[in-house]
Hints:
Number of helices of chain A: 10
Oligomer: homotetramer
Mean pLDDT of chain A: 92
Low-confidence stretches of chain A: none
Radius of gyration of chain A: 23 Å
Structural class of chain A: alpha/beta
Strand order of the largest sheet of chain A: 7-8-9-10-11-12-13-14
Amino acid sequence: MIIVLKPNISKRQEVAVLKEIRKLGYRPHVMRGVARIVIGAIGDERTHQSLETLMTWPQVENVMPVQRRYKLVSREAHPANSTIQVRNLVIGGKKLHVMAGPCSVETEKQLLKTAEVVKAAGATILRGGAFKPRTSPYEFQGLGEKGLKLLDKARKATGLAIITELLSEHHAEMVAEYTDIIQIGARNAQNFQLLIAAAKTGKPVLLKRGLSMKIEEWLLAGEYVLANENANLMFCERGIRTFETYTRNTLDLSTIPIIKQESHCPVVIDPSQGAGRADLVIAMCKGAVAMGADALLVEVHPNPAEAWSDGAQQLTPERFGKLMRELRPFIQAAGRE
Amino acid sequence: MIIVLKPNISKRQEVAVLKEIRKLGYRPHVMRGVARIVIGAIGDERTHQSLETLMTWPQVENVMPVQRRYKLVSREAHPANSTIQVRNLVIGGKKLHVMAGPCSVETEKQLLKTAEVVKAAGATILRGGAFKPRTSPYEFQGLGEKGLKLLDKARKATGLAIITELLSEHHAEMVAEYTDIIQIGARNAQNFQLLIAAAKTGKPVLLKRGLSMKIEEWLLAGEYVLANENANLMFCERGIRTFETYTRNTLDLSTIPIIKQESHCPVVIDPSQGAGRADLVIAMCKGAVAMGADALLVEVHPNPAEAWSDGAQQLTPERFGKLMRELRPFIQAAGRE
Amino acid sequence: MIIVLKPNISKRQEVAVLKEIRKLGYRPHVMRGVARIVIGAIGDERTHQSLETLMTWPQVENVMPVQRRYKLVSREAHPANSTIQVRNLVIGGKKLHVMAGPCSVETEKQLLKTAEVVKAAGATILRGGAFKPRTSPYEFQGLGEKGLKLLDKARKATGLAIITELLSEHHAEMVAEYTDIIQIGARNAQNFQLLIAAAKTGKPVLLKRGLSMKIEEWLLAGEYVLANENANLMFCERGIRTFETYTRNTLDLSTIPIIKQESHCPVVIDPSQGAGRADLVIAMCKGAVAMGADALLVEVHPNPAEAWSDGAQQLTPERFGKLMRELRPFIQAAGRE
Amino acid sequence: MIIVLKPNISKRQEVAVLKEIRKLGYRPHVMRGVARIVIGAIGDERTHQSLETLMTWPQVENVMPVQRRYKLVSREAHPANSTIQVRNLVIGGKKLHVMAGPCSVETEKQLLKTAEVVKAAGATILRGGAFKPRTSPYEFQGLGEKGLKLLDKARKATGLAIITELLSEHHAEMVAEYTDIIQIGARNAQNFQLLIAAAKTGKPVLLKRGLSMKIEEWLLAGEYVLANENANLMFCERGIRTFETYTRNTLDLSTIPIIKQESHCPVVIDPSQGAGRADLVIAMCKGAVAMGADALLVEVHPNPAEAWSDGAQQLTPERFGKLMRELRPFIQAAGRE
Lengths: 337, 337, 337, 337
């Protein structure tokens, strides 16, 4: 921690700060600058109490942390890339995976048809929401366990692995029983109780970035998973909230090189939520692949205009086929399969 | 719903849209403008499926909702101000209430001392976190039930009512047993399962605004409480996330007249979270009172520099006393008690 | 400056950083912490070259400035409040001033009528745009010099002082000839050439906050005025751009105590631009007064629905009268006149 | 325009709105919905006065524009891609161009060396700032005309075309005399007087996106160039301001497909400003190429740590060579040269 004192304070005020720093377990180191006194507080910031509280003292101008606050998710702790085994697939390795399927599981027919077309086009994982977090209580909230059973049926019929969202601590075991990957949605990205419940199931966890989550906060939310003894974590960028209204969210593709730099965990990009508009999804997928994403999460629906949720951002099967064909040269250029 | 078609589309494309609108249960009404065809889709947007999915159609340029999506929280539904009975207090009436206390419940001594000083200065409700949502898993997570018991003790000792945060669906009943008001924090503002669990306890619910929640989304999150048969809802602004880094968040005081205009529920302002800096809290409280807030939520700690969480934003007892004295003329000017 | 080195770097890498710090004119001071080496670079950050460029070095993790970058606008440099003489008025003193008038100067009749009603209600300064920065080139761009002449006429008729916006370096002298205060708009808040041109006229300058300007950047933009030998600067908050769409901008009232803390210059609040909605202006003015604003800038138009620009945010004369009446108790509570 | 009336208004209030709509030159068309009355106002929104002012009327709930407000920049007006001739180069055609060079022109040696290395690596256009918009008045403000002369020298020595920023209306002719492309920076993106001055020189204009500019506003700022009879306009995304602090700005790569969809003008990506960190530039360039950018704008400096401005984001010549080599397969995959 670095503590910057205000200009022109008394010796007594300086000494009081030094005393408090020692009391909180750090060793103070004073530097007298041209305009201000700066104190380095030496000690492990992750195990000691924060000194940010010194900000309340009238003689203190600023308190600045020096260390990163995340440990287990950091590349410092684990220099090699992590890979995640999902049934017979490996995420985070040489192969780029595409997770595709409808926003919501609606009917057996809708789900099986989608599963078949996405598999035929090259997807390896089927997505579909059985529990849906909806902005309004009057919108379709998902089929619940019935939806999970349909996902299981689609898995048996096609061999695709399954990813679906967990919404409630009460459902953690039930969802884990059916799915291969547990998705934590953007609205729950700092619902730490849910993260702990998901981690404890032992299933791989895909953690979406919250709508206004700083990268450090996202990594720390991931830390909750690893700290609860589940090493199989993926980060999924899905767009952040900005002032722009042309797109539903602003997909922040710079997270790909940043997460790769800060962490060893795989990175997934969700351009459907990111754009909220099917017409932009193909270009965004190309960018994500070129920048090094390990997997894509794409919404596909047999008839988007009649989807029970978020129709505007779901691709038709035809457009999804086009996407998969057009992605090929970029996958090769990125040195992936 | 208003559907705007692209310029220069064929008759066949127009007819297809009209057909789909009818299929989804609305009655289409065509207006031919100078540059574009605009279709009004007549029907209740809250009970029919959304037409926003038409955005995926190549001939559609834009789809615009006409109705507000919230019902029970809206002033349209309930023109008079709602008031909430909390023990012998009424929130949303003529009296301005101040909820004050430490960020976290730490020790019996800390809590009781704070309770006494805030009561003496004029607060009517004691705040204190027993379950704390912390950005990092390595930070203090709260005393849990032990903290709730200390709050109960402080209530008995002082007669203050209690507000504390609910973090987990599993704790809803336990927290409701001890507290007078259940707080839903900013990170859980769209954790709809938690909102439902809180609503079902029957206790008054204070719903903080999420870090990047639009006002419409906030009202809709509140709708989850009222739709689960709990009419005792307060909205609490605590600052939104913006690009500014001088303050921790940007306290959006315009929410006071906006929520008053759109809804009948009381409005509470939390300047401690909003600023993240004790030195700005007094001015923000004055603004909140002048603009018509029904209550304030203020963090007070006997020794902020040694607080176990968020010390930088907690007031000392002396400063809290100063706040309460300086607020008086503004409370009078606002016609409150 | 504080330079944080990455963990596990070589001695040679450390020495290279120390050498560069010396080369750039600072004296390095090394602190060996638990996890990282931290270097304090001692020297005046405002007169030496920035060390932030060290961020490009592979062994450097972070570079953190210690000093504030503004000098002349800072309260450190000038502990007392500055006051600004505008004709026979003093801004920044005990009296709260209200600057009111139409968004655009349209006709002699419109302007004179508005001037009379705002004066009668208690305003002391007349606002009105002669040069208008419009998002689209097809919108009304202002009457230009003809508008300035109408403002002069209104001043002569009513005795009100005048504030109007400067848009182009070419117009600096012409605008200064007619106006009492030069307004720099939000879109030009970092148009430094225009700031310099405005400063050099010697007229008082009101600097609006840019749509996404951090407080530090705003103070530094103000520094351009004072550094060009014009001490008569006011800061005017008019709302920042956020994700919220209910209001046009988010009025950040916390800037009042913040600017008062960091600077000695007067603070003005513009709630009309801040909200973009006349129905919220009254509440926002009350908040601004309670929090210590020195002046308000309010748009008033005899018939807002027929205004040539920004009608939605202009008050009718009736509403302006109501505002001025309702403000009175808050002005008293704030200890102003 | 669509005007939504509030529920439960009187017939008289409805008639008043219809009368005003007619008075402002539109033909009203009434639709009676389930909950509200909606009025379509038929007429060209770009040539008539805006109806948004009706928002001030108590009986009006919302006013929604139907038409796009930009004309000349829109793809509707010009369905084919525009190309721009810059000396012997064509921007917006099959060839991807790289504009590279230092943030600021510092010395002849620095500039010529950079020009040679970027040319050798494949760049076709040399960038370099002679007039610099700096946040603080105490930072290096550029060499001015001397810098322009050095750029001219570098052009003669290498045959590279030149792009440099215009800061002041007073300099438009001087800058146009030396440069091949005029750059309008982010801080001046809504400095409409400067845009008009740049347009009138007849030189191609590269318009950076403002820090908090919505896409519609950016297109409308571009409209100022085309409406002043200069058809040679490029849009350049350089990152927007968001809550994230890990990067200096958030580079919004979705603007590539969006601008391509809405406009016929070429799109350029500036990842140096976007990230503010050299270590992220390579990945961002790959994404930009994959998504269809027409050109890249990259900062390169012989010794970034000693750069006179923005060192943290400038590439070394070695890293720039690596970038150009690694981009090749993506350029091919995108079907460019």
